Amino acid sequence: MRQVYVSTEGTHPVSTEEIKAYVDYHGTDYNAESVLENLSIAARLRLEEFCGRNFCDKTMVMIVNQVAIRQALPYGPINTITSVAIYDEDNVLDETLVAGTDYTLMSEFDKYIKFDTISSGEYYKITYTAGYKSDGYPLPEALKRAILAQTKYDFRNSSGGGDSSQTMLSNEARLLVAPYRVYEI
Question: pLDDT by residue (tens digit) across 90-119?
Fold first, then answer.
């Protein structure tokens, strides 16, 4: 079993001014701007899910009860590992692993952990930072354009100009993110 969740999230990579310009909205209505911002965040989240990548810096927590010597870290690009801890069946911390001694972060972009040994325990809790950010792996322009294209699509195709419950990805956004999509084997 593997569970991955977001602990904290960084800054949305598209500004309100960029969104307004892309959807050709020149008004100053705060409510309309708020709708556009919400649609943009919803679009980013759907595109991240589709791609299997984080478009902004996030702190991720992964719980794994069957760890392998090489453990993949999802939703890259992976930036740093904050901690690796092993818990027993009573959810009590059993051991905290040490980078460079107990495990090594491997690869350049879509990284994984290489454990020197597998410890016995009920589960591993791996906390790490992942996602595109300005001082590491900057967000590719195609992914930024995909967020904007999906926001425009949702804005134009929603009833009342702002239903954030859209689930369909536009063809344009899908094509823009396709080269960045991660497929799990």
Answer: 999 999 999 999 999 999 888 999 999 888
> Per DSSP, what are the bridge partners of residue 106?
112
Predicted TM-score of the model (pTM): 0.86
- Spatial strand order of the sheet with 112-115 comes to 70-72, 112-115, 103-106
Q: How many CB atoms are located within 10 Å of the residue 166 CB? A: 19
Structure-token pair, residue 144: 């930024």
Contact (Cβ atoms closer than 8 angstroms) between residue 163 and residue 155: no
Under 8 Å between Cβ of 115 and 103: yes
The residue ranges of every structural domain in the chain are: 14-55+137-162, 59-130
Residues whose CB falls within 8 Å of the CB of residue 29, separated by 6 or more in sequence, listed in order = none
